[in-house]
Amino acid sequence: MSVPIVRSTAELRAVTARWRRSGAKVALVPTMGALHEGHLSLVRAALQKADRVVVTLFVNPKQFNSATDLDAYPRTENQDAAKLAPLGVHLLYLPDAEEVYPPGFATSISVSGISEGLCGSFRPGHFDGVATVVAKLFLQTGADLACFGEKDFQQLQLVRRMVRDLDIPITILACPTIREADGLALSSRNLRLSPAQRAIAPKLAALLLGVADRLARGAPVLPTLAEARAAILAAGYREVEYLELRREADLQPLTSLDQPARLLVAAWLGDIRLIDNIGMSPIGATN
Ligand code: PAF
């Protein structure tokens, strides 16, 4: 059984409006394709919570800051559709760039604060591109619910902030990061790792866990992070963009683990940029 595909906003709106009129609860899973188990876990969560699930596959040019990165992004439409069919997804939306950004398109959504720092410092304009396309998809589908992975934690918090600020009537469901058996967080970029890089890649997650353990035992935050940056380089990564402890709710920097926090990292392995993060409870909290 194949999943129905629409490629225009008008068709997408027509189908989702019909569903909503019939009282169905609609969930949206926005993706850029190159689907892996992480995406499929979002789809499964959506199917559990809603009567109808739309998956979008759109490599959004506005969130890439380099043409090379945009060109190198894997496009695997047929394989993606084949992975989604057995799950029981109800609709695939595959617009082209002209459909999403017709000539004259002039609007951009910018979520200040949360989009600054971390990935925002290294990918100028990236989060404006994400916020703009996600807001469009929310409006086009009128979905009741949308699923986002914790792997892109800054993106998740940015979308939550935007939904609150703009009173968009949608529930955001956060889904945990899915990992390979050796701890490497699943990412479409993993497909580009050479065998040698693939052997080094999981050291990032292992080091992150090690830092979390040390901080939870009361190690001082800044020196511990500095040592861990050096350890990531020693493990074979070329560059560490950031390794930071941030407050979970609004991603403000923390210098002590005294509130719910997130430890976030971005590092380059050769020419591949990998990110990861884990949640941390404040010291002394019991859970
Ligand atoms: O996480 C992604 O794949 C993208 O940023 C998203 C949310 C689909 C927007 O293009």
From TrEMBL:
Assembly, per entry: Homodimer.
Binding site for ATP: 32-39, 149-152, 178, 186-189
Record protein name field: Pantothenate synthetase
GO cellular component: cytosol
Family: Belongs to the pantothenate synthetase family.
Gene that encodes it: panC
Reaction(s) catalysed (UniProt annotation): (R)-pantoate + beta-alanine + ATP = (R)-pantothenate + AMP + diphosphate + H(+)
Residue ranges that the Swiss-Prot or TrEMBL entry lists as coiled coil: none
Role description: Catalyzes the condensation of pantoate with beta-alanine in an ATP-dependent reaction via a pantoyl-adenylate intermediate.
Binding positions (beta-alanine): 63
Biochemical pathway: Cofactor biosynthesis; (R)-pantothenate biosynthesis; (R)-pantothenate from (R)-pantoate and beta-alanine: step 1/1
Keyword Iron: no
Other remarks in the entry: The reaction proceeds by a bi uni uni bi ping pong mechanism.
CDD domains: PanC
Key words of the record: ATP-binding, Cytoplasm, Ligase, Nucleotide-binding, Pantothenate biosynthesis
Gene Ontology BP annotations: pantothenate biosynthetic process
Annotated binding of (R)-pantoate, by residue: 63, 155
Annotated localization: Cytoplasm
This enzyme's EC code(s): 6.3.2.1
MF-aspect GO terms: ATP binding; pantoate-beta-alanine ligase activity
Organism classification: Bacteria, Pseudomonadati, Pseudomonadota, Alphaproteobacteria, Hyphomicrobiales
Protein's organism: Mesorhizobium australicum (strain HAMBI 3006 / LMG 24608 / WSM2073)
